[in-house]
């Protein structure tokens, strides 16, 4: 049986080196995978920021370094003196070939720390004098079955060419990946800086400068503007800044965007400041207006009522408000502006106080119920003043006659007078007319009193 022809040592080394080259071709794919993997933290100055902290090598360089070490081992095994020069933190250095002359028998070339090529006894291998090459430990050296790494008289040029080609490709690939990584990180840095600038400006307008460090952290981590904005909305600072939105949702009201929210705030504050109500120009008051969906038109009406009809009102009206509703002077404006109190009720109560005051100025007491009833009918302060002036004119004589003829005619008091004057109630008018006519009929002949003089009228009051 014929023995298989053994490959020469040079051929084996060439095959081994070729396999290294094939591995190098796969390195491109590996580096691309590494480059597409999210990186943290962001490079802010140079590609060194994503390198291994100990060696300073990028992921591409780490893979290349492995091939370089295999190359060095391959050359050393072939008794080719090589070394790495120019290596430092962050770089691989370059493989260089040593002296072209062979070392003396039993020695090998090595590169000293000073950079000089020197000879030393062979380490780990011994010279096979018969074959003229190196044999792994354990070989008997007689040439039978031993596998010399390289024949002393062989041509090493092919191996050296492959080694140089490998080294050149490693260097080029490494540099390309460094440049690519630098470009990618520069793009990421620019994107992050743009996001930081835009969002810092935006959230500063919201009064949320405290979130700027968070914006920078998220942007440097690679988050987009939209992602950062969503994450910031979950912070306690953001929720507190737009706290009225939470109340609006509970009440089934629409959630306001920051722009609409701040727009309402500005409108409310302008109205309050226009009337000098700076004490109510606070975040708490403004957020209550938003939470209760108070329109700017309603707030303007509230402020007008608070200033013109309460704060600047006649002290007598303030006294009536206090008597009717237990609202003190200090609380009056706050009560009117309280967004939790329905404004129609506030208007009715202020109008009732104005009507009650008009009655008091005529020496009469309308009371809360009557004043509110008249207010709900739309009776104004001016109408109340004219009406109670008329009532004050007719009531003394009418009540006097009512007391005289109480056993024969219906009584006529303040309630009937209010119904006659403000409501033009026919029954109330008849009561007073009957009393007048009865008085005229009784005393006309004796006193000479004229019918026209006793029959006063309320016609044309309104």
**Whole-number average pLDDT?**
74
Total beta-strand segments: 6
Strand order of the largest sheet: 1-2
Amount of beta strand: 5-15%
Structural write-up:
The chain contains 18 helices and six strands. With 462 residues, it is mainly alpha-helical. The chain folds into three domains: 9-185, no CATH class; 316-379, no CATH class; 380-462, no CATH class.
Summarize the structure.
This protein has about 450 residues and is mainly alpha-helical.
Record the SSE blueprint.
Layout: H1 9-36, H2 59-77, E1 82-85, E2 94-97, E3 107-111, E4 117-121, E5 126-128, E6 133-135, H3 157-205, H4 212-220, H5 225-232, H6 236-241, H7 244-250, H8 258-274, H9 283-291, H10 296-311, H11 315-325, H12 329-337, H13 343-361, H14 368-376, H15 381-404, H16 414-423, H17 426-447, H18 451-454
Antiparallel strand pairs: 1-2, 3-4, 5-6
Helix pairs in contact: 1-2, 1-3, 2-3, 3-4, 7-9, 8-9, 8-10, 10-12, 11-13, 13-14, 13-15, 15-16, 16-17
């Amino acid at each position: 049986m014929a023995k298989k022809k053994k490959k020469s040592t040079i051929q084996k080394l060439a095959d081994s080196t070729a396999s290294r080259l094939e591995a190098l071709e796969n390195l491109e794919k590996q580096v691309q995978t590494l480059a597409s993997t999210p990186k943290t933290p962001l490079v802010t100055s140079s590609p060194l920021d994503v390198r291994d902290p100990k060696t300073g090598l990028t992921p591409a360089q780490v893979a290349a370094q492995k091939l370089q070490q295999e190359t060095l081992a391959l050359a050393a095994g072939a008794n080719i003196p090589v070394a790495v020069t120019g290596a430092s933190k962050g770089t691989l250095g370059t493989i260089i070939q040593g002296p072209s002359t062979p070392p003396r028998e039993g020695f090998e070339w090595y590169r000293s720390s000073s950079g000089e090529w020197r000879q030393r006894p062979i380490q780990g291998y011994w010279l096979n004098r018969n074959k003229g090459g190196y044999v792994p430990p354990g070989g008997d050296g007689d040439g039978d079955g031993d596998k010399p790494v390289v024949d002393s008289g062989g041509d090493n040029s092919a191996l050296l060419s492959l080694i140089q080609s490998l080294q050149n490709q490693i260097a080029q690939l490494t540099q390309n990946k460094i440049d690519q990584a630098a470009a990618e990180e520069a793009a990421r840095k620019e994107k992050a800086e743009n996001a930081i600038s835009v969002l810092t400006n935006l959230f500063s307008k919201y009064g949320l400068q405290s979130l700027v460090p968070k914006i920078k952290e998220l942007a440097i981590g690679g988050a987009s503007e939209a992602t950062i904005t969503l994450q910031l909305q979950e912070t306690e600072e953001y929720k507190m800044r737009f706290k009225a939105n939470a109340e609006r949702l509970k009440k089934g009201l629409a959630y306001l965007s920051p722009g609409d929210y701040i727009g309402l705030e500005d409108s409310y504050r302008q109205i309050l400041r226009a009337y000098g109500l700076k004490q109510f120009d606070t975040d708490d008051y403004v957020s209550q207006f938003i939470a209760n969906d108070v329109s700017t038109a309603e707030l303007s009406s509230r402020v007008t009522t608070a200033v013109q009809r309460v704060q600047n009102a006649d002290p007598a009206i303030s006294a009536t408000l206090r008597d009717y509703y237990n609202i003190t002077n200090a609380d009056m404006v706050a009560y009117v502006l309280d967004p939790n109190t329905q404004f129609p009720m506030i208007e009715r109560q202020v109008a009732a106080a104005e009507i009650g005051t008009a009655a008091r100025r005529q020496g009469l007491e309308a009371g809360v119920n009557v004043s509110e009833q008249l207010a709900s009918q739309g009776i104004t302060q001016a109408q109340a003043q004219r009406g109670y002036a008329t009532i004050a004119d007719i009531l003394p004589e009418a009540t006097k006659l009512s007391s005289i003829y109480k056993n024969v005619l219906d009584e006529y008091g303040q309630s009937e007078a209010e119904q006659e004057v403000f409501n033009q109630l026919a029954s109330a008018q008849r009561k007073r007319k009957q009393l007048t006519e009865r008085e005229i009929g009784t005393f006309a002949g004796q006193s000479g009193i004229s019918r026209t003089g006793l029959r006063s009228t309320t016609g044309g009051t309104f």
